[in-house]
Task: inverse folding
């Protein structure tokens, strides 16, 4: 089986962390694209965007319970990949270092693309033969060719706009990472 995981808001709580740190109501992030969040004030949207650029945030995040189970998927012969966007090379480096050291993910299985003003590649380049794709972005799910797309529920991927964006795709929602991994282990192809 070929499985691809996103990092932010899948393996660790990026938006929850930022919201708690700055007193932003997490449930008000109803759109994946921050500027489209009309429930957030301009200051809150700017704070989110600023923190997405802050390498220190990515050093502080704790992995979700269940993240350590990704290694067991690898040990059981599954081809597991980690795909993530980062807003700087420094952030990508932190993600790669933490995944390899803390979760023992092979570095050659981690793809961290850089998205900034100089490099605006916004699509994750996923293998066409993915069995499972685990992400929080409805836009990434809409472009996915995975047999099944698995989402951990967030306010921005459960909205009517998100569901419209993902229409035509096979996807399922889960409450947490352990549920996702249980599902994969119990429905092996």
Result:
């Amino acid at each position: 089986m070929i499985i691809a995981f996103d990092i932010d808001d899948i393996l660790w709580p990026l938006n929850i962390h930022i919201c708690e740190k700055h007193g932003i109501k997490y449930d008000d992030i109803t759109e994946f694209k921050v500027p489209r969040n009309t429930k957030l004030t301009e200051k809150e949207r700017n704070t989110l965007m600023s923190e997405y650029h802050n390498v220190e945030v990515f050093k502080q995040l704790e992995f979700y319970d269940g993240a350590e189970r990704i290694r067991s998927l690898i040990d059981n012969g599954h081809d597991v990949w980690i795909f993530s966007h980062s807003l700087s090379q420094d952030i990508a480096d932190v993600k790669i270092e933490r995944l390899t050291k803390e979760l023992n993910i092979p570095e050659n299985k981690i793809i961290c693309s850089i998205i900034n003003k100089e490099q605006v590649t916004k699509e994750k380049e996923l293998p066409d033969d993915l069995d499972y794709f685990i992400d929080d972005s409805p836009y990434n799910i809409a472009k996915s060719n995975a047999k099944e797309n698995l989402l951990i529920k967030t306010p921005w991927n459960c909205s009517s706009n998100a569901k419209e964006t993902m229409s035509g795709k096979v996807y399922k929602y889960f409450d947490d990472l352990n549920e996702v991994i249980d599902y994969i282990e119990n429905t092996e192809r």
